[in-house]
Amino acid sequence: MTSGxxxxxxPGIGTFFVxxxxxxxxxxxxxxxxxxxxxxxxxxGGEPVGSWPLPxxxxxxxxxxxxxxxxxxIGTRWRxxxxxxxxxxxxxxxxxxxxxxxxxxxxxxxxxxxxPLAWLxxxxxxxxxxLGSTVLGSLWLIGLGMLAVLVALxxxxxxxxxxxxxxxxxxxxxxxTPEDLDTxxxxxxxxxxxxxxxxxxxxxxxEGLLDTVDNAVTLPRQEWEIAxxxxxxxxxxxxxxxxxxxxxxxxxxxxxxxxxxxLELSVAAVTRRVxxxxxxxxxxxxADEALRATRHLExxxxxxxxxDELLADTVRDExxxxxxxxxxxxxxxxxxxxRERIAAAEQAGGELSPP
Length: 355
Known about the structure:
Blueprint: E1 9-10, E2 13-17, E3 25-29, E4 36-41, E5 47-51, E6 59-63, E7 69-73, E8 78-83, E9 98-99, H1 103-114, H2 120-136, H3 138-170, E10 175-176, H4 183-201, H5 203-206, H6 215-246, H7 250-302, H8 304-314, H9 317-350
Antiparallel strand pairs: 1-8, 2-7, 3-6, 3-8, 4-5, 4-7, 9-10
């Protein structure tokens, strides 16, 4: 996957953190025969849900926004076929982890350096088998050969996943989880991610119609910067509450008052930034509506010649021309509306503070 943006596919083998490595949504693989998957749900992935072995043929899986991680072992790739469910389709959206957009590429580079080492285990087993066979006979070599095959199938992916998890833990300052936030912070982050998902999954964005806004770069950076601010705000809010509770004195309240005021200003500023993202998402949805209407009109216009022929055969030209002109005017008006809404969405995207 590219750095700074989620792709619409997941490799068949590996462990991927939701919100950091992969986007939530509905995924499909062409053939999962004999493979398996595990969704790590609940806080920090403490409630795994999985399926094994997978049947032959296509398989679909729903990765929820509040899942912690997704582990897979199949021979093909997973392809995203639908976004995560909208807020109205189920429970209120929950905040998910956010990472520095450059972290994924950094982890891939580190894990890539250790990929050749992952295959040393089966080679070592075979080497021991060859040496041991001179003493214990051919049965010893056959047994170790089978063991080497099992190790070769399982060790590389497992060891690389462990390496990735360790490297991710060492870079704890490069990602934010919902546990790093308090309730106000989680609510704001959930709003940010809902807006980001709306823009990313919009048809006008997928088709490149919002060409003045580089959403693949802008949206992940906005989400990461806002998450960092929310984490700092949560930490400072917690410190203020602890100091206020431990020393219930007028002097302490007076000293904390200007700090609270500054924190409130910070909250107001980041809230305005969140609202700008939500306006951008609303404009993208409006542009989607105009785009869908335009496509319906194109389908209707494609049938217009048939109706023109019918009119020409049954009524005078004076009756046919106004009908054709009205259809043309409707098409022109809808095209103007689509352009206006795309321009409004681009303007809303331009209001986002630069990374």
